[in-house]
């Protein structure tokens, strides 16, 4: 059985003070939600403070990005060894990194390898653009991203993949649960071919893109979908708590 997973990606939001306030607002209720793994990904500058606040809780911490080199003259970058010990997860290949900062599949591949070397758990983001979707090229795009990131890497059953169609991110237009479930099943099939069935069955695959407290139930009700990567709605404590609680309840019932 895969443990359901809800991750909050705060993106470039919250000052250090605001981040602490947001954690305080959510801490108790998130901590009490059982049967679902909970993850917060605040900006880099808040990782140390949030790490301290999450000690003795069931909530985990992740970074939103990292560079693949371990140290050196890379002004402004954060390395895997700076993150390990501080957080357990790292989001890699988010479509905003790919779109605004030119991250290619090759770079994402190097980052996945570097994260694993430093014992960080990657959350690999993949998703088709609107034009690819409209041209019926969703599966081609996804297959290229998954294979590009993971080919040549030993099977990792504790990998997390987030399927985030670019057209659904931050637009208020979530994919339908049918579309999301079908593409997630396709991703699992790609992993079966790339690695093997038993590893692929253990990889958690999330949906992301305009998830909120109103639509999470549809996604969580699908056995193919193991949870969500939440952007905008993770910045509102009531919303995020509701997303986590509904997921715990729906997935708990399905067991
Ligand atoms: P959104 O972002 O929930 O604001 O659409 C999701 C993401 O980019 O992870």
Ligands, ions, cofactors: 2-phosphoglycolic acid
- The chain-level structural class is alpha/beta
Largest sheet: 8 strands, parallel, barrel
Weakly predicted, low-confidence segments: none
Quaternary structure classification: single chain
Average pLDDT works out at 97
What is the helical fraction, as a range of percent? 40-55%
**Side-by-side strand order of the widest sheet:** 1-2-3-4-5-6-7-8
Number of helices, counting only DSSP H or I runs of 4 residues or more = 11
The rough form would be described as globular
What is the beta-strand fraction?
5-15%
Return Rg in Å: 17 Å
Order of helices and strands: EHEHEHEHHEHHEHHEHEH
Distance between the termini: 9 Å
Number of strands: 8
Provide a brief overview of the structure.
With 255 residues, this protein is of the alpha/beta class.
Explain the layout of strands and helices.
Elements: E1 5-9, H1 16-32, E2 37-41, H2 47-54, E3 59-63, H3 80-83, E4 89-92, H4 95-101, H5 105-117, E5 121-126, H6 130-134, H7 138-150, E6 160-163, H8 177-194, H9 197-202, E7 204-208, H10 216-220, E8 227-230, H11 237-254
Parallel strand pairs: 1-2, 1-8, 2-3, 3-4, 4-5, 5-6, 6-7, 7-8
Helix pairs in contact: 1-2, 1-11, 5-7, 7-8
The structure holds 2-phosphoglycolic acid.
Describe, in plain words, how this protein is organized in 3D.
45% of the residues lie in helices and 15% in strands. The protein is an alpha/beta fold. Strands 1-2-3-4-5-6-7-8 form an eight-stranded parallel β-barrel, surrounded by six helices. Helix 3 links the parallel strand 3 (59-63) and strand 4. Helix 1 packs parallel to helix 2 (47-54) and helix 1 (16-32) packs parallel to helix 11 (237-254). The chain is globular. The model has no long low-confidence stretch (mean pLDDT 97). 2-phosphoglycolic acid binds at residues 9, 164, 169-170, 208-211, 229-233.
């Amino acid at each position: 059985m895969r443990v359901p997973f809800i991750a909050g990606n705060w993106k470039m939001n919250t000052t250090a003070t605001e981040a602490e306030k947001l954690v305080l607002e959510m801490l108790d209720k998130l901590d009490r939600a059982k049967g679902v793994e909970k993850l917060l990904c605040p900006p880099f500058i808040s990782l140390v403070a949030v790490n301290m606040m999450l000690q003795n809780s069931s909530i985990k911490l992740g970074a939103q990005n990292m560079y693949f080199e371990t140290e050196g003259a890379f002004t402004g970058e954060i390395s895997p060894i700076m993150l390990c010990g501080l957080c357990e997860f790292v989001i890699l290949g988010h479509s905003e990194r790919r779109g605004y900062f030119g991250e290619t599949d090759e770079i994402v591949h190097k980052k996945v390898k570097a994260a694993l070397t430093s014992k960080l758990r990657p959350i690999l983001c993949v998703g088709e653009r609107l034009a690819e979707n409209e041209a019926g090229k969703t599966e081609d795009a996804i297959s290229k991203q998954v294979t590009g990131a993971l080919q040549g890497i030993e099977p990792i059953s504790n990998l997390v993949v987030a399927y985030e169609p670019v057209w659904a991110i931050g637009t208020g237009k979530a994919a339908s649960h049918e579309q999301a479930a079908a593409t997630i099943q396709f991703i699992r099939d790609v992993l079966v071919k790339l690695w093997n069935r038993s590893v692929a069955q253990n990889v958690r695959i999330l949906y992301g893109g305009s998830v909120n407290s109103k639509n999470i139930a549809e996604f969580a009700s699908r056995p193919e979908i193991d949870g969500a990567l939440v952007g905008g709605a993770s910045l509102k404590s009531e919303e995020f708590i509701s997303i986590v609680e509904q997921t715990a309840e729906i997935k708990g019932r399905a067991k």
